[in-house]
Amino acid sequence: MQTVNDALRTWRTRRRVSQLELAARAGTTQRYLSFIESGRSLPGRSMIIRLAESLEVPIRERNDLLLAAGFAPAYPESDPASSRLAPVRVALERILHGHLPYPAVIVDRSGDLLSANAGFDLIMEGVAEHLLTPPVNVPRLLLHPEGLAPRIVNLDEWAWHVIDRVQADCMRNPTDRLVQLSLELVDLAPPMPDELSPSYLGLAVPLRLRLGDRDLRLITTLTHFGTATDVTLAELHLEAFLPEDEVTAAALTELYDLRSSHAPR
């Protein structure tokens, strides 16, 4: 296990921040920061928190830094079903419902599904049952040959959009689970095309998805609690799929209304 001194240096290197810049952000001196990283000084609890905040270290890992220095964790980790997070659960479910008829999901830091609306259930119809057995991983569900992959028209481009995002998370906040997922997704994806089409716009790359006889065009947005002080809450992400054009919007509305009219009451 790394010492807190080594771990802080690792995070600074990972963020590509100089000692001078980090010292300025955290309100300390470069000399003192150099002493910390070399092991000549052991930072106090408040300094660890200030340095971690300045480096945008996830709060789960901030707790690890504190523990490595012999301090108690500063950030609680609530059970998702606890009464403490009840208002958050209600708010998120309202967002999911309010996004209908368009798909939306809530996932954790590894992309595991925590909740989904009926719009997401609609586009998931027909995927293999084993992919829907908890924990359901959304990136795997999207790229697996028994998942959505056969219905993604631009799979050669969109798969790499998904992989790029997972790999970016790995570089920024690496975990064994994310690293393993990244390797798995690369194995599932088709070869990256030599030339990307003009529709490949980085984070705004559209998802072209066949649903029955419809060809849907969707873009995705990610939302998270940037100022959360609870580990569980900080690791939640809401991913919403939005129609790129009026044809897709009308098709999803029609299909959702049709499905709802046949749902048991």
Descriptive terms for the model:
five-stranded antiparallel sheet; 265 residues; 434 Repressor (Amino-terminal Domain); Beta-Lactamase; alpha+beta; 2 domains
Describe this structure in words.
Residues 8-62 form the HTH cro/C1-type domain. This is Transcriptional regulator with XRE-family HTH domain. GO terms for molecular function: DNA binding. It is a single chain. By secondary structure, this protein is α+β, with helices and mostly antiparallel strands. The protein has 2 domains: 4-68, 434 Repressor (Amino-terminal Domain) (Orthogonal Bundle); 83-262, Beta-Lactamase. 48% of the residues lie in helices and 12% in strands. The chain has 12 helices and 5 strands. The chain has a 5-stranded antiparallel beta sheet, sandwiched between helices. A hairpin with a 2-residue loop joins β3 (207-211) and β4. The longest helix has 18 residues, at 155-172. The protein is elongated and about 65 Å long. The mean pLDDT is 91.
Short description:
Residues 8-62 form the HTH cro/C1-type domain. One of its GO terms (molecular function) is DNA binding. With 265 residues, this protein is an alpha+beta fold.
Q: Give the neighbour order of strands across the main sheet.
A: 2-1-5-4-3
The class by helix and strand makeup works out as alpha+beta
Number of strands: 5
CATH class of the largest domain: Alpha Beta
The span between the termini is 55 Å
Report the CATH architecture of the largest domain.
2-Layer Sandwich
Query: Main sheet, how many strands, which sense, barrel?
Result: 5 strands, antiparallel
What's the average pLDDT?
91
Unreliable segments of 5+ consecutive residues:
none
User: Total number of helical segments?
Assistant: 12
| Chain oligomer state | single chain
Shape: elongated
Element order, helices and strands?
Answer: HHHHHHEEHHHHEEHEH
Q: What is the CATH T-level topology of the largest domain?
A: Beta-Lactamase
Radius of gyration: 22 Å
Portion of residues within helices: 40-55%
Number of domains: 2
GO molecular function, one term: DNA binding
Protein name: Transcriptional regulator with XRE-family HTH domain
InterPro entries: Cro/C1-type_HTH, Lambda_DNA-bd_dom_sf, MLTR_LBD
Organism: Actinoplanes octamycinicus
